[in-house]
Amino acid sequence: MVEKKKSQAKNQEKSASEEEIERAVKGSKEEPKTEAAAKEAAQPAKKEAPAADYEDKFYRAEAELQNVQQRFSKERATMLKYEGQDLAKSILPALDNLERALANDGDDQGSKEIRRGVELTYKSLSNALRDNGITEIGKSGDQFDPKLHNAIQKTPIDDPEKQKADTIAVVLQRGYQLHDRVLRPAMVSVYTK
């Protein structure tokens, strides 16, 4: 009799598991009939949740990695664009001194030869800066822009037809910019009413 009950229990287990297999194959959404079947049906759902969680974490990590790579590329491009900034700032005072030397006129032959050498040095240095993206800012007659110019003094308007308010009268010291970044603002005198 005990053996008969064991064989009936095995048959019930087989039939219960066969029913579950059939439901899974058919995609049926019927409720499981026994508690054991209900527990087994709930367990696969729990196992799927961590897998979905890991997949979500993977995609988030991959997106973060792409963002870091893009940010690094932008920073590197910016560094390369402005890499000569410190050197240019160091050279600008020497360029100013060459301009001052050219402003002095000498009458004798020695002064003329020195002036010629200073002119060649000034031109080659200016060309080197220009070739590397460094341009002069601030010319007489340009509109005053506080982002590019530093107003040192005011100049009253003498001839209203030729001179306009808030324009540059005289450039006292040239300004320079590297691409779109101001290395040194131009020191200017501005026309005022």
Description of the structure:
- With 193 residues, the chain is an alpha+beta fold.
- The chain is built from four helices and six strands; from the N terminus they run ααααββββββ.
- The strands form two sheets. It has a three-stranded antiparallel beta sheet.
- Strand 4 and strand 5 form a beta hairpin.
- The radius of gyration is 41 Å and the shape is elongated.
- The relative contact order is 0.09.
- The model is unreliable at 28-32 (pLDDT under 50).
- Reading the helices and strands in chain order gives HHHHEEEEEE
- Radius of gyration, Cα only, in angstroms? 41 Å
Strand content: 15-25%
What's the number of helices? 4
Portion of residues within helices: 55-70%
Coarse shape: elongated
Overall mean pLDDT score? 81
Low-confidence stretches: 28-32
Tally of extended strands? 6
Largest sheet: 3 strands, antiparallel
Strand order of the largest sheet: 1-4-5
What is the SS-derived class? Answer: alpha+beta
Concise summary:
The chain is α+β, with helices and mostly antiparallel strands and 193 residues long. Helix content is 59%, strand content 17%.
Write the layout of secondary structure elements.
Elements: H1 2-26, H2 35-81, H3 85-103, H4 109-131, E1 134-137, E2 149-156, E3 168-173, E4 175-178, E5 181-184, E6 186-192
Parallel strand pairs: 2-6
Antiparallel strand pairs: 1-4, 3-6, 4-5
Helix pairs in contact: 3-4
Keyword list:
193 residues, alpha+beta, 4 helices, 59% helix
